[in-house]
Amino acid sequence: MAATGLPYRNAVAVLSTMHGKERAIGPTLEQGLGLRVALAMGLDTDRFGTFSRDVERTGSQLDAARAKIAAGFDYAPYARVGLASEGSFGPHPYIPFLALGRELVLLVDRERGLELTGYFASPETNYGHAVVTGMAAAAAFAERAKFPEHGLIVMGCVDAEPAPGLALFKDVVDHTALERAVGDVVAKCGAAFVEADMRAHRNPTRMRAIECAASDLVRRFHSTCPACRHPGFDVTERTGLPCEWCGLPTHVVRTEVLTCLACAYREERLTTSATTADTQHCESCNP
Question: pTM value?
Answer without folding.
Answer: 0.91
